Amino acid sequence: MQIFKFYPLLCIYELKNIFRIGLIVNPIAGIGGAVGLKGSDGLEILNQARQRGGLIQAPKRTEEFLQELKSIKDGIKIYTLKGVMGGDSSLKEGFNTEFLTIEGIPTFTKLFETDSSFTLKTAKKMKELNLDLIIFVGGDGTARDILESVGSEISCLGIPSGVKITSSVFAVNPKAAAKLLIEFYNGHSHLRESEVMDIDESAFRDNRVISKLYGYLSTPYLPTLSQPSKMASPQTLEEKNNQMRIADWIIKQMDNSGKDYYYLLGPGTTVRAISEVLNQIKTLVGVDLFFNKKCIAMDLNERQILEIIKGKKVKLIVTPIGAQGFVFGRGNLQLSPKVLLRIGLDNIIIIATKFKISSLSNGKLRIDSRDSSFDKKFSGLHRILADFGEINIIEVV
Asked: Which one-letter DSSP state was computed for residue 286?
């Protein structure tokens, strides 16, 4: 009898110490990036992304996260939906998984048959279950759905997989998310209120950046693993003059490089200053092609870039995202590893104003190209043009 009484109590004790994680995957997050759609919100944009051959990224990002989580595998249980919204990935990586049954959501979730209501309902169910942490895979739109469903009542953490990832509720990449969760599980990270931001996609496609703060989620935080919110360049005379001096230097290099070089100009106001000095129109949030100091193609997607640069000498000019420091993987997914390797890493020119450099988290730049092998190849020390002829050496991690 003593053995009989003790064994159930042991089971109850162990059950209470299982760390319960909710997993919500937005399977189409990021599909619009490489094809130049600057997001994937709405059925019309999703259909355009599919027609252009947009790639599914979220399941792979989820699996990268889970693979790094295996050191605490025996201590956690994942609650999710069957199919593409988490179940497939959790089972594939061998995790203890419980599937949720929620009214209005199919028993098995399938690709291109999900919508934001699935995220909203699932997050609400996870709040009712009082889980220890909700992991969501997506972009700013997914973060907004999580915020609407749970508020600050349950801790959450985002794995970046969308096109728009301006919020600070995300880890810097899937592997960082796993490391952050492990630290949180072991009691080595604290919680903070993290911003949920989003950019108006319609305005974004019209070259207008309209960003709004929607609220805050409670997230595990460590400065080297957590992503800060995107910071816009200040609209000051000093910043503008700095941008113009950088542009003057770049144009000087255009003169020196020879007339047979093509120049791809990435998104951002720092890069746009080059077109202003040249008296040329340039998209603010797109990738444009210049030849002989004239813009000859605008707002190119990955496929168009690969076609147009074939057999040509090309240099690429990019600027990192303010405060976040991402050179690639945030807002410029059309500059894919395939494109960057075709251009050649020696032909990539990174520019950043002194203010932008001063705002970098930990004084470093980042890369999250969605290809970890390329990220390793690109990481390391890089020359950053910070003023007219002024070069800073900054590490990309």
From this structure: S
Q: What is the DSSP letter of 325?
A: -
Helix (H, G, I), strand (E, B) or coil at 341: helix
Interstrand relation of 211-221 and 190-199 (parallel, antiparallel or unpaired): antiparallel
Measuring CA to CA, how many Å separate 46 from each of 5, 194, 197, 202, 211?
57, 28, 21, 14, 22
DSSP state of 171: B
* CA atoms of 84 and 97, how far apart (whole Å): 14
Rg for the chain (alpha carbons), in Å?
A: 22
Q: Decide if 219 contacts 155 (C-beta within 8 A).
A: yes
Domains of the chain by range and CATH?
2-221 (3.40.50.10330), 237-396 (3.40.50)
> Please, what are the averages of pLDDT over each run of 10 residues along the chain (397 residues)?
36 61 94 65 62 80 97 97 98 98 96 95 98 97 97 96 93 97 95 92 62 95 94 92 98 88 96 98 95 96 96 97 95 95 97 96 94 96 98 98
Q: Which residue, among 387, 304, 309, 377, has the nearest Cα to 353 in the 3D structure?
A: 387
Q: Kind and range of the H or E element at 232? A: none
Which positions ≥6 away from 289 have C-beta within 8 Å? 262, 263, 264, 265, 295, 296, 297, 298, 300, 305, 308, 309
Residue 105: phi, psi to the nearest 5?
-120, 130
135 - beta bridge partners? 23, 157
| CA atoms 66, 68, 71, 76: torsion sign | negative
Closest CA to 384 of 376, 368, 375, 395: 395
Range 100-111 burial, b when 16+ CB lie within 10 A, else e: beeeebeeebee
Q: CB-based contacts of 376: which residues, under 8 Å, 6+ apart?
A: none
51, 31 contact by CB (below 8 A): no
Question: 């990955």: which residue's tokens?
Answer: 302
| CA atoms of 333 and 181, how far apart (whole Å) | 26
